[in-house]
Amino acid sequence: MGSSHSMSEEIQELAEKTGFTSEQIEHLHRRFKQLSGDQPTIRKEHFDNIPDLEFNPIRSKIVHAFFDKRNLRQESDGLADEINFEDFLTIMSYFRPIEMNMDEERLDHFRKEKLKFLFHMYDSDHDGKITLQEYRNVVEELLSGNPHLEKESARSIADGAMMEAASICVGQMEPDQVYEGITFEDFLKMWQGIDIETKMHVRFLNMETIAQCH
Amino acid sequence: MAALPARPRVHAASPDPLVLPLLQAAGAGRDLWNGGREPPGAQCVREAVGEQRQGRLSTAGSPLLQALGAPALPGPSAMFLLLPFDSLVANLLGISLTVLFTLLLVFIIVPAVFGVSFGIRRLYMKTLLKIFQWATLRIERGAKEKNHPVYKPYANGIIAKEPMSLEEEIKEIRRSGSSKALDAPEFELSDIFYFCRKGIETIMDDEVTKRFSAEELESWNLLSRTNYNFQYISLRLTVLWGLGVLIRYCFLLPLRIALAFTGVSLLVIGTSVVGLLPNGRCKEFLSKHVHLMCYRICVRALTAIITYHDRENRPRNGGICVANHTSPIDVIILASDGYYAMVGQIHGGLMGVIQRAVVKACPHVWFERSEVKDRHLVAKRLTEHVQDKSKLPILIFPEGTCINNTSVMMFKKGSFEIGATVYPVAIKYDPQFGDAFWNSSKYGMVTYLLRMMTSWAIVCSVWYLPPMTRQPDEDAVQFANRVKSAIARQGGLVDLLWDGGLKREKVKDAFKEEQQKLYSKMISGNHEDRSRS
């Protein structure tokens, strides 16, 4: 069958680029088709069909992250209108679990990639810094929907957290020094020595196949 | 009457003149054929025809005997060959139609009328199962030989989901993230990890949208519509599939359509006739039997093989029968085993004709389109019906929409507020023979019915559960959930809290806010503690 042979070549390519196994890619492809309604690309509206996602307070940030060109490893900036399957896999690859046989360098790179994904989620204006306002936005979104929580409390929580971040990154500040925002290096500093990447992955169930495709 | 000649020398059996052309075609008449001479059969046919015209019928075979003794006449043998060929085709057609109708009548309609079963359908089911097993083994073997991957579908999803709750997970993240004291948690950057991961997990695989597409099979049942992974493997399998298509479309489909037509028209005519009778025991008796008979014919029209369990729990008068909903066929399946009053909206078209005819014989509860919106009116009419003990049990499907039979979704509380005894019924279809789920966004009613009638069979099990009543300390929603769990447990279906209406609408905002409230309570509650101290 000619078509299946070229498809398995494509799958091989994708597997090398993104690091998923070919079975996982096939499963994700089925999911992609289900989400996109059998079309070759996904748009933002297609994510509206997932009821469980409505629960999530940072839903819009997550969906946004899929279309963020910085996450898609494209040179340009800004937002894409629609993504194809390869882009979908690229985003999903940020959540791959850590493999046992990774060496130090790869592990470090992996971790940086994951944290960069998260950084982009916070940094909504793409200027490379998380400012106080952006931080406040995230906190408000996470706490939104609770009628008992006033906006002021959300704000003060954000301010307090920002102060802490500043103290970690810059140390003691002068009274008139302005902390502009958390850069990516500062962001990394905050998570140094802490195993956050073990919490930022999605594990696939062990899938048996009857025959392997090489 | 022609005089019988002296016994000639015949070295073959003397056949009936009408059958002779067939025999000749089969080569049996070779012995009688003399090269160049006109075959004796021709003359005997002519003679038989001539005898009939004169009003005299000779005994079968005597014209032949005469012909054998008579001198052979040269004649157009070609003309002879054409004549019986036409009648051959006509004969075959006539024979097959007669056979079809006899089959229909003897094996299907008559047992349906009396409610007995010959067990033909179960034999059919067993044969099919053996063939499917062979087909699946063949595919697996073929796939191994050619090194194609063959994927088994996963009903439980493809992701390992953490069974921890929101609170526990966030505590864990914070514990691994910070070295601060844990008794004063506050918002941290790391909290976003949990939501981010949950979000990506649901994008990869979620519980709800799975329920609205047809269940995936582990073996192939020779229907190309369930053929997801299986490619061309062997000639034998393709031939078998082609044979299956032929049987299903050319033999089973016309048979089923004829039966369905019979069933529906009998229902409409029968109930209209019964409706003319005066109210009384006689009318009720006849109505019940007309209904049952027609539903049984419809069941056979779909080749539905149903196993009823625990029939002693069948619903009684003054009760409400509640079942999980997979397709419109559920109604036929339940109504062929019991006499129910249906509840529903009046439709137009054929459905409306049936509804209007049926209500003449027996008090079903039909609502106009405008009345359906008024919940109080609906509840009032249902309560009135239920309180009259002489009226039949009502049949209701509280999910409100068709689910794909792997789970049971939220029951709407309306029918549980009425206060009558509830008789739960669990229906589970076996998708191996034909998937009964009606995906109303994908297929219209007619397409769906055609798909049903071109499947192998509809196999299902029906369990009648013991009756339940609402306890004094529970409200309608809790009662509905209790009934739902019982049905899900019995049928082996997953019990979901989700609303079946999600097939068409979005999540209600009330649900969305639940989780947000929980999370923000965790943070703000502690924050308030801190600011107070």
Automatic annotation (TrEMBL), chain A:
The biological process GO terms on file are:
cell differentiation
InterPro entries (alphabetical): CHP3, EF-hand-dom_pair, EF_Hand_1_Ca_BS, EF_hand_dom
> Which residue ranges does the record assign to the EF-hand domain?
110-145
Cross-referenced Gene3D superfamilies, in alphabetical order? EF-hand
Question: So where does this one cross the membrane?
Answer: none
List UniProt keywords, sorted A-Z. Calcium, Cell membrane, Cell projection, Cytoplasm, Differentiation, Lipoprotein, Membrane, Metal-binding, Myristate, Nucleus, Protein kinase inhibitor
The cellular location(s) given in this protein's UniProt record come to: Cell projection, Lamellipodium; Cell projection, Ruffle membrane; Cytoplasm; Membrane
Topological category with respect to the lipid bilayer: Lipid-anchor
Taxonomically, which superkingdom? Eukaryota
Which GO molecular function annotations are given, in alphabetical order?
A: calcium ion binding; protein kinase inhibitor activity
Q: Name one Pfam family in it.
A: EF-hand_1
Which cellular component terms (GO) are annotated to the entry?
A: cytoplasm; lamellipodium; nucleus; ruffle membrane
Which family, according to the similarity comment?
Belongs to the calcineurin regulatory subunit family. CHP subfamily.
State the name under which the record lists this protein.
Calcineurin B homologous protein 3
User: What is the scientific name of the source organism?
Assistant: Alligator mississippiensis
Q: Which gene encodes it?
A: TESC
